[in-house]
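Lab notebook: predicted structure, single chain.

Context: the supervisor wants predicted structures on file for every construct in the current expression panel, including those that have not yet been purified. This is the next one on the list. No modifications to the sequence; it matches the entry in the shared construct table.
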Amino acid sequence: MSFNSLGLAPALLNALNAEGYSEPTPIQREVIPAVIGKKDVLGIAKTGSGKTAGYVLPILHNLQAATVSSYREPTVLVLVPTRELADQVQQVFQTFIPFLTGRVTCLAVSGGVSINPQMQAVGKADIVVATPGRLLELVEKNAVRLSSIGTLVLDEADKMLNLGFKEEVDRILTLLPLKRQNLLFSATLGDDLSRVQQVVLRNPQVIKIAAEVDEIDLIHQLAYLVSEEKKGPLLRYLIKHGDLKQVLVFASSTIKADGIVNKLLKNKIHAASVHSKLSQQTRRDTLRQFKAGELRVLVATDLLARGIDIEFLPCVINYELPRSPKDYVHRIGRTGRAENPGDAISLISPEEMDHFKVIQKKMGKRVKILSGDQLDLQGY
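Prediction complete. Output recorded below exactly as produced.
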């Protein structure tokens, strides 16, 4: 199947061709016609499945076909959990907007940067990609009205609910017109998400793209049982001994992430962390360097990793296990994409073994466990 059969405007087909998109992914094949048809959509698909372009393209198609209002207010609202994801979604919109025949503008608004430029621009944007807290600040300052929103997107809805955004999202929903198109996307469908979709969506088309078994089989999983104090030397051993070039390391907290980075730098391994205490520009620069291969190791928490989307990431290392088995699958799913194999390595302390057994059971796959304490880590 080609994009030509999905009903997109010629301008967007030209854009896809120019950007090197050859054929739609499974989620795009189903989402694009549904959104063009103005249906509500519940889309369940893993990160990296192409869902962002899946809703961006038909939204732009519908905007171009719509009659332009005599006043300027946002008509599309995309809510996301993090600044990084807001930037990422805006970049996808900006990839295709220049190909449109009419004037369409997209703005990302999030905390961590000055609110003043956002206040001046947000009311005139057609599409607003926002984190909930900053959007409510802008509403309270009368910088933007949401009374003309015709399409609402909740992206990474599962994470938004887990991170405690539900109250803010509920407040935003009361500010929107009752008659609107609702698009809700998530990597998983939990109980919280089920309740939200019952409130937000109206007779939705449910599109669930299950991860193929062979996709996780592309990921070579390996674990090392190691005492907590030897995790740092083992991590440095794996990077140096394996000559790993582009490594994403997951840590449980910003303090832990910074500590890991400091030890890596002392051992002459080029590394950096991304977390909420850094400026937005620093975070953007760090992510850019890592994506470009200029940074050998990036240490991130689960939240900050939402904005990391690299097609051929070779290696993921869990310095600590996540609390949720679903988050474990999401973490290792950052590698082994697009039919390219990847490595996922977990450093497991004895205290984490019972939890790792639960993760393996939920995943339906056993992971080979080696003894890290038997390795010669002297000098690492």
